[in-house]
Amino acid sequence: MEIAGYIASALIGLALGLIGGGGSILTVPVLVYLFGINAVEATAYSLFIVGATSLVGSWSKYREGLVDVKTALVFGLPSIAAVYLTRALLVPAIPVEITTVAGFVLTRDLLLMLLFAVLMVFASISMIKDKKPVVSAKAGGFRYGMILLEGLVVGTLTGLVGAGGGFLIIPALVLFTGLSMKMAVGTSLLIIAAKSLIGFTGDLGHLQPDWTLILTITAIAIAGIFAGNFLARKTDGSKLKKGFGWFVLVMGVYILLKELVFQNA
Q1: Any residues with CB less than 8 A from the CB of 207 and at least 6 apart, and which?
Q2: Cystine design at 27: which of 41, 46, 124, 226 (Cβ 3.0–4.6 Å)?
Q3: pLDDT tens track for 41-87
């Protein structure tokens, strides 16, 4: 299964390079189902892997002038604080066994996987459907309150499930700051990198990471990004995004069925 896991790690980066986002949504399922990592550790490892790969992607966007540092700071600071506090305080405070109803035991690992599966379904829908272009805010309409609130919400979600949340960040940046879509994509990568990497440090007080595994997967995913960037110049990104969306939807439904229906099968 580890070989399949390393192949899937390359696909994470490949998806990020090809369609500019979404690949990180695969990181936790790869860690849990192919490497056998428990959900709490998997979400922590995912933060580092997603953060490092996004950092590489944001650097290339920055060199192209497609990163708004001011916006990244306004959105990123509350998001970073939320991720860190979620990993350092909230996740460890969740009981290992939360409740039992009619013989069904809701554990912390199960709760995190269910939250992640629901996030995958919502992310897939945003990739599949043909959306109308997001209308940006008018000049001078930088809405600090909404950006701060969105940063807190996305940061908490990222801390719980270990995914970057780009499908939530990009529309928010366009709507509330007036950034173009291309600028929003580049800026979101910097935000994801910062909040994920700093959020990961919130786990270090109660986690002994397998650095060999983490760094190996990260290196493979980063290599995938470069391959994806190369292929992106020769392929139709919109069609790829829709196809990848269907794949993510199938994975999300599979996780829900596996954890709820076939858990004890």
Answers
A1: 41, 44
A2: 46
A3: 988 998 899 889 888 888 888 888 888 998 888 888 898 899 899 98
